[in-house]
Fold each of these.
Amino acid sequence: MTKHLNPIFNLDQFERKPRFINGFYKRDILSVEQFSQEDLNYVFSRADEMMAMVEKWGTCDLLKGYTLACVFYEPSTRTSSSFIAAMERLGGKVIPITEGIQYSSVSKGESLIDSMITIEQYCDVIVLRHPQIGSSAMAAKHVNVPIINAGDGAGEHPTQALLDLFTIKNELGCINGLRVAMVGDLRYGRTVHSLTQLLSQYDVSLRFVSPDTLRLPMELMNMLIDKGIDVRESHKIEDVIETADVLYVTRIQKERFPDITQYEEVKNYFVVDEELLKRAKEKMIVMHPLPRISEIDYRVDKDPRAAYFRQVQNGLYIRMALLAAVLGQA
């Protein structure tokens, strides 16, 4: 005769329900193309709330009982640590898979899809960085928890673009009417690609400064032209520094070059220093997605227009807002 045991838990007490059905609940964050201006305003409002919460209390229990898997197939400092900090400040738990993943299951021949389906069993949301363009979108087709794209090769970096736009808005008070100059690796720079697409929703002027070999991809340039955006290209920062409201500087990415000799030819092409900034507006900002190599002189850090470390801090608030939103808690 089978003995029936009393259950340890009343499972009704542990039922998790979304507080808000906000358009982001259980939604994958794969590309900036998903975001309308209404979506952006929503995320920025939640990020402002997260900023206020952190400044007043430091942490909360908004995501208590939820687990994030932070899966990075490429090295990362800021993105991985900010997602981990975001989840922990919201009271959630993190499975950090950020070191040695290429030497574990991948080295045994396991596919990305099998890895994601496996990791899905342990968590409520996955943040994924992978060197293959479209990897996050591919993974999202095979798992049932939200996937957040933390960078897919030379493709996109949507959360970086969101924090970049949030920084511009907070620093300068608006987005419409600004002149934004992007400098450096415009060909391989996924941060540039994603931010350019978001800015194309606004009334802005865009200036692209790069060597010929690192020009913005033609499909993005054609998109801007088709939208009627005021856009120009140049090879010199001096051509844009006096009129720029935002100087968005990127490093020349050695790891993206198929031929190392091409990298050597352009690695020190641009340097932003104190002398250059003497020609810039009093009210403007210098941004950088980091890490930097030599493209911004360290003495620039003391200039109040240097916004790149405030930009890093804003990444925490944006990622807190996104995690809470896709889990239905914001």
Amino acid sequence: MKLLGMLKMLQGAGVAAQDHAPEAAPDLKGMLLHHLLDSNEIEFEVLGRGFTIDLTKYAIPPVHLGQFTIDFSPTKHIVFLFLAAILCLAVFLPVGRAMKGKYKDRAPHGMANAMEAMVVYFRDEVVRRNIGHGADAYTGYILTLFFFILSMNVLGLVPFGSTPSGNFMVTGALALVTLVVVEISGMRALGFQGYMRTIFYAPEGLNPVGQVIMLIILTPVEFLGKLTKPFALMIRLFANMLAGHTLVLSLLGMIFMFASAGMIVASGVAVASVTMVIAIMLLEVFVALLQAYIFAMLTAVFIGLIRHAH
């Protein structure tokens, strides 16, 4: 279903390009950007009939803060980001009510049992193992990260879907929130003086001159180290989700590029492209789960590192 949706979107983009230049080759770059980048339109199909939602009709007046302008108007990625949040609420609100209600005094069944198993695994093997004492206070945040990112990743695999986590502004916002949580956690655990030593560090036992030299060398390194951790989180998630969709769309685009190369060549390219895309899509399901897990696990690791900076 996802492959059919991509093929139809690519075909539509190719036909639109050929309407303006009938003799030109299919615009593969335009096809890729049309699907990968954020836009003000959402395209989908119901029973063979195509629909387009123009999000500019729902534009919100921008907010001006001095020289800065903040635009809250909805885009395709924002819509799917909110869909991911709604999906998480739709799953966990009923499960939470069931755990407090009919499963309060007995073992849960069905969806509640599956969610409980995942929550317990994350609490024991990810949060407690990496953060240590006081880790349970961070279980909710780590679980929220995992399931929210997983929902965004999975939405990019459904027909006519889009992947908000393939937008570096989305992954950057998640990384920024993680940076704030990590640094506040360190300040609460170490105190102000102890926290400042994670930036301005001079090994004990050195003479004053040696301490000054080490401060000059290590202070920029330690400060940049605090920024590179969330930056790595942002780039890793963004790059992995974008790369998979780029590869899938590039392989599908080859079908249209070789459409006029003769029946035998075109058929061979089509079979090879679809076969490789099916294999990559199966891998993408695993990558969607893996990248959500890595983001959540590394967040727990960073919190644990700063809470035990000694």
Amino acid sequence: MNKLYFPSDSAEAKRLAKRVGRGQLKRIRNGIYTDAPWDEIAALVQSRWYDIVDYLYKDAIASHITAVELRPIDGRVFITANIKQRKKITIADVLTIEVQPGDTQRLTEAFVPNLRRSAPARYLLENLQSARNTANKLQSKAYGRLWVEGELCKILARRGEAELNKIRDLAREHARALKLEKEFEQLDPLVSALLSTKPAEHLKTPQALAIARKQPYDSERIRSFELLADYLHRCELDPKAYDYSATAWRNLAFYESYFSNYIEGTEFLIDEAEDIVFSQKIIDHRDQDSHDVLSVFDLVQDYQEMSITPTSTDEFISLLSQRHKALLQQRPEKRPGEFKTKANKAGDSLFVLPEQVEGTLAQALTAYITLPEGLHRAIYMHFVITEVHPFDDGNGRLARIMMNAELARAEQFKLIVPTVHRDSYLNGLRDATRRQKFRTMTKVFSDLQAYTASIQWSDYAEARATLERHLADKLPDQGVPTFNRQISKFRINLP
């Protein structure tokens, strides 16, 4: 592994110099050596920048934008040290260290064993400093007021009002000693406005203004929704027109409920589910599970209900609440119809925080209304609900209900998500959530709508026989090859 070498005394400096003479090391700056090949020096220097800083300035701290990023940005890091004048040090033409004079003791915290950084109260002040006049804006040491607003919003969302007040108190206490009084005069009203103790006019960013108006939202999720909407605008999705038939609609509603519940772990044999829905028979010792299947069916078989889609924030929130209440009416411990009060997560994915749910849903409608009706809006709606996860339980089933309502409203075929296709469905959602890659998710829903439209729903026995012949009711490891041969018929070109 490539290393950096720093002599601790003159004797070691001489030994390293001799190794340079023998071609074993390279000197990249006075007192700094490496055994890395020339083409690997840049990566080494930029990844171990803090070791270089520690060698050059033992008392230094990472400050300004570097205290935030903890890495070089465009080959530059900013540090504060006990010096009298600002300095600029270049290492091997691949790293520039901007050294600011200042206090290195106040408001700092551990970063790596040999280097500290500005703590939040300090780096917020530092990033409010006016940037030096320069032709190259990338050289600015401070992110500026708008960034600070965004950072305050994140701190408030993640750690609450008490933490924001603590940061302000620390900044007030140390601003004079740090010579950042003017910056504190900017920070103080921003915090007050976010906490609604001063007018919102002090704020500029949409997210901060939303918080001040008591409607905070998850800005990262909104950005994901905007990216999805942009992607969907570039997709040509062939609509699958649906002509209403009471019998076909009822038969499709049964499988819509059956598969939607199976995905969530409410597993019945098809014969058992038929008894629940068509004979109103509650399966022994599974009263609540039986009602889950029946509740979804009752919702999705109601053609009038499934033709309602939101046109405003109030309608959106009301629809979600009403449908969730109907969905989990037999599970009072799940607080049917009430938004979550505790954060929820799946694996390592944390969903939208409770206090941001209504604001995020409201903001999500902005991109929603720009999309064509039908599958475009359906995919978008499904993703919004799964990302926000507004309730304690039932979010997956609700997302699929809201998605199919968009299709019903547009007089298009609703879609089912068969058990056999569960992994593809979930993989598409993971790609969208973690990487903002939306092709797989879009393809899955497009394929499934086309597949659903290919089934003769007016004859229940024929529909069931078709699904079983395609192994749609089997687990993915049992039926994927057979089922994939069917959906491969519905090819679609996506960006």
